[in-house]
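Justification of resources, computational component.

The compute hours requested in this renewal are based largely on the per-chain cost of generating structure records like the one below. Each record pairs the submitted sequence with a full structure-token output. That output is archived, and it is also reused by downstream analysis tasks.
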Amino acid sequence: MDILDKLIQEWSWRTEKGYPDLTNEDDLKILREVFSIDLKETPLTPKELGKQNSKTKEERVDILIQKIKSGVALELDKGDETFIVYDPKGEKVAELQNWTPAKGPVTLQDKDGNTITTSKLKKTADFGGGAGSGGGAAQTAIQESCQCAVNALAQKIGSDITSKDLTPDNLKSIAKDIDTTSSIEDITYFIQNSPGWASTFVNTAKMLLGYAGTGFEFHRGSEFVDRIYQAWRKVRKANGWKIQDDKWNPSDIWIVSPAVKNIQFKTDSIAELNNQMVELFEERKLLGASLKKLGPESKLTVRARQLQSEKDEYASSIVSPTSKDAYVNFKSNAKMQLRTFSTDGTSFQGELKGKTASQGKIGGGVLKMLLSKNGAGDIPPQNEALKKAVDLSDAFVKEFIELAKRFGDFNITAEELKEKSTDWISSKYQALCVVKVLETGDPAKVADAVTDIVNYAGSQSSISSVHLKVS
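The structure output for this chain reads:
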């Protein structure tokens, strides 16, 4: 496997779905980290500037106006240069407020008299582009910080809070009740200049107020939040797991009772840490919440409240003698396809279908970890399986033939196996090894592993921590 293949494999492993999605900003962010490159985006031509940010539904020209008012450095389309617009009298803001794409590019000037046009600006992530140096992350940070502030204001005003209550004076009055990565000044500015977000902030605050009650601080990226994830990372490291933080707990903001701010989180085991999180959650002392911009219908649900969610069990398997995959059926009617998602024998994964069709894939490394963690059995690491498929030693050929006959219900000769591609052999071998563990392992332990596997993609495995989901 050459360096490019290794980089792509690393990118795939880190993504939530187990494979890259070029429309997903988080996946693109991972790509930039892995390849250490910046993805080329269309500049803010009049046509592009006249569009909305597809994620936030804000007008791009309004985002630009907000940046100019805030004195934010704007990234240029070419190179690593930035440009800060100088507009002391608000004349450029006024021009943009009355601008349409038909008027063409707008000329911008900095404090030194240098000029550019809006067509020279980069369409970074905060404008809705796929790239940008942290633009999307910055936009997310301010939005989540704003939610903390509106939560605190709802706690003060009550459940009858409306968008009209989001005034600068009201927001300033709750500054002591939030601990966020954005200042109260930036929060106030965003709320005042992003009316499309007001209903989401207020409706989310009402739901969280109704569930949690009052007497809280609201945290986003605080030192206290860092301590929560430091505890998880210690447990993760001790177990040798390669699982992202948001797979343990995807909360964007945290509802924190002042009484627990000095608490020591338990790190001896994942069960101990998760039990502590459940206890704090049930006592309404610490509640994490995963957020989404709300539509006309919204709901609040509790996720991963127990160490294990709905129990599932292994039912049967189907292994074709010709294709490189295998299907595993579960008693919940969910099923999982096992195969490599490549043509070179790498990226072995399980894709959950049926009951969990919308929940994506589970990487081979995580699959191996969940089987081992629950004591169901072990499967070979992907690199070991690929090496065996390449070397085709006599011992491996014999092992493969026996696996195929016993767990695949098909016969294959050594000559026939050697005619197969490396990818087919690697994929089929790993799939058969999984089926072997499911069929020969202790039924109770296999059931525990299956439960984790089926629920993993939805952040519901026994590794996951309790949290609220607003959607």
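The chain has four domains: 3-35, 46-127, 136-298, 314-456. The two ends are 41 Å apart (CA to CA).
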